[in-house]
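Entries read sequence, tokenised fold; example below:

***
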Amino acid sequence: MIQLVIGAGLGLVGGVAAVVLHRANKKAMGSYEDELEDFDNGNRRFRPDKPVLINPLIGAVPIAVGAAIVLLSSFYAQDIGEAVVLRNFGGSIAGHTSEAGLHLKAPWQDAIGWDIRNRQINFFKDSEYAYDGGSYEGAEVSINDASGTKANIDIQVIYSLDADKVEDLYAEYGTQEAFVTNYVSNDLRATAREVAGGYDTLTLLTDRAKFTDAVQAALTEQWKGKGVIVEQVQVQDIRYAKSITEAYADAQSAEVAKQKALNAQETAKVEAETKKIEAQGEADANAIMTQSLTPEVLQQRYIDALKSIGKNGNLVVVPEGSQPIVGK
């Protein structure tokens, strides 16, 4: 819009200048011709000098410059990752574009850019609040878990804007900075606090990923249809008071000691059971062997042993009363 005002102003200046110069030239020439006539009639001693005239066409220069500015104001360049809202002179919205390149608009319209690339919202410890081209950062978020215990969290959200919603966002918030500062960042804080109220202290201390997923799901639902697309949520740290973390550490140590004792008991039990099984197996084997050694089997094994010893001419002496071995 400002280009249109400048161009129109230059055109007006050029036009006025041309008219003024034309009239000045005409007046100067009229005076010269009158003085020249008086000289010719002998009423003047010296011949008058012809006046120096300025060409009125010089006024065309600012007119041409103004026209060029107005012409250039009818075009705007749009970058990749940008959406542009067109606003009329009276403040009404004329539409939007989301494709990169050179676009045509009316000279009285303003092209207002909105960044639709991935941008970050960071809340980290004692950071200063600051806005930068769609990104925003600030201090840690304070939460209360299901038991009312207080903690502080560092959280990061990567988001982008829906190009088809920039008209609505402009109509409601005016600028992207106002939208991010007054809505997106505040909504993130409120949602993180609300979700944290559904988890106990132990879960938040031991399962941060579960809490992170819950925050992302809640934000996705909260911002659905409002022009904000959640790309990623990352809860980077959850900080409880020292007394809470120490109590949790003591409980963890006790749990570890308990588990070690249980494991030792289980090991001893298994070893005892193994020995019992081995002893039972050995007893069963001996019983089977004892049952299988009948007098007939023992007598045959005795005879076989004597035969083996008596091979190759060995002398075998048997106790008195034993049955002699016949043959080899």
The chain has eight helices and eleven strands. The chain has a mean pLDDT of 80. The first helix runs from residue 2 to 40. The two ends are 132 Å apart (CA to CA).
